[in-house]
Design brief:
168 residues; mainly alpha; Arc Repressor Mutant, subunit A; 2 domains; three-stranded antiparallel sheet; 7 helices; WH_DNA-bd_sf; WH-like_DNA-bd_sf
């Protein structure tokens, strides 16, 4: 995910200052790693430098001065390009779960059983979170649940293959 593109997407609705963008990012991308304020402001400066965003105004309403940014026409075009780019599937398996199993040898089955229990516990937590009804939270929970479900299916396959090898 490109932080710059996400911020441009949030600026499409209306001009916003960095604090507001950070809060909206963390709310709308519930379940994603929260942005650090420093990352937001550094990204805004880069977007401005590249002509994708511009300073719309500076506000000072009883607090610190806040710079409000707006998306430019070039920023809209770049956002449109990014939104229409199909994300390629990952060319490599880059999973800590897979890496541990690959090097664990015969000890992998114990690890897989513990990991299965941890995944099931997390799935119960996410299912409970979905009850909140907030659309962003529900989407994030659904996404995470689908990934955990895929991991669980792989864990079951790996356990079965390991049993086949040990019985051969």
């Amino acid at each position: 995910m490109s932080t710059g593109h996400v911020l441009l997407g949030l600026l499409v609705e209306r001009p916003k200052h960095g604090y507001e963008l950070k809060k909206e990012h963390d709310h709308r991308l519930a379940g994603a790693k929260p942005l650090a304020y420093g990352q937001v402001y550094a990204t805004l400066q880069r977007l401005e430098r590249d002509g994708l965003a511009e300073v719309a105004e500076t506000q000072q309403e009883g607090g610190p001065e806040r710079t409000v940014y707006a998306i430019t026409d070039s920023g809209r075009a770049e956002l449109e390009r990014w939104l229409n780019t199909v994300e390629p599937s990952a060319p490599y398996v880059a999973s800590p779960l897979f890496a541990r199993v690959a090097v664990a040898g015969k000890a992998a089955d114990g690890y897989l059983l513990r990991q299965r229990e941890a995944h099931l516990a997390r799935m119960r937590e996410l299912t409970a979170e979905k009850a909140s009804g907030a659309p962003a939270r529900v989407l994030a929970a659904d996404y995470a649940l689908q990934h955990l479900d895929a991991d669980l299916r792989w864990i079951e396959t790996a356990l079965a293959r390991m049993r086949e090898v040990s019985n051969a």
